[in-house]
Amino acid sequence: METHVERISNLQDLERSKLDRETGLKLFEDMTLGRRFEDKCAEMYYRGKMFGFVHLYNGQEAISTGVIGAMRKKHDWFCSTYRDHVHALSAGVPSFEVMSELFGKETGCSKGRGGSMHLFSKEHHLLGGYAFIGEGIPVALGAAFSSRYKKEVKQESSSDSVTAAFFGDGTCNNGQFFECLNMAQLWKLPIIFVVENNKWAIGMAHDRATSNPEIWRKASAFGMQGEEVDGMDVLAVRGAAQRAVKRARAGEGPTLLECLTYRFRGHSLADPDELRTNQEKEFWAKRDPIKKLAKELIEGDFAKEEELKNIEKNIDKEITESVKNALEAPEPPSEELTKYIWAED
Description:
The chain is of the alpha/beta class. It has helices spanning about 1-10, 20-45, 60-70, 85-90, 95-100, 135-150, 175-185, 205-210, 235-250, 280-285, 290-300, 305-330; strands at about 75-80, 165-170, 190-195, 200, 205, 225-230, 255-260. Strands 1-2-3-7-6 form a five-stranded parallel β-sheet, with helices on both faces. It has a two-stranded antiparallel sheet with strand order 4-5. Strand 2 (about 165-170), helix 7 and strand 3 form a beta-alpha-beta unit. The radius of gyration is 20 Å and the shape is globular.
């Protein structure tokens, strides 16, 4: 806890994105949608309505909202992890399609074939969730390479998309991480490597697993721009993401963005979460990114408390309807068991 706390306390507010009413309400709505959606997933799981491995994003919403909200939806590309529900929602995938996928229904964004860890949406440029750590980074690298190839080789001037690759602190000890950073910097690819450092790689404390816990500094080994940011502050994340996107679109290459954050629940819904101390959990709960933004909106006179409560009510209604409709949606037809496995003529 001390390492994260000390590092966050040394970060400056000058790095934050400016707040205005319209932006603030959009950020609040997106983060609240993510939080309420995940809470409903937990409810459905414990009621025996949802099966398999389910990894929730509670506490980390400022990263998904801050990064994806600073990019262009359906233009830029996003590559997730097994903790992918909220990334999908921030990218614009309807909550009904995400919930349907979690129930394994034909109306899911992956046609019920992917489930919680394998969300995908071509329409929303979501390149997928991945069950194994590090799996998505080479895929994201390919998307970034494609963007530059189209622009420079095929002379498509409109090809200026940027790719965001999300992954956790545990992934940063894997080979794909280093190999892809090297290639991205070598070819000056338009990609943002977003490290969601929540201190724990399943049950392994981050500080015990790596020789240098400051992940953002590893960018310097490749001559890459690196930056650390308070991942519990959506405006700080948004500001850092805007700078990284600007560099990428200008052809200045990739950025390694380390977001210091904390997950409020266990590694998955099957995790009793007994390794982390109550003191640590209570400390980070006080840094809730949604409550922080709500306080700034109200104290800055950008919004009234009642407005924020109405947003919450509308989101709760949307999620309730998504669950109801998803439960009633059809299962994938049995005769299509092998569909999407092999290429079709």
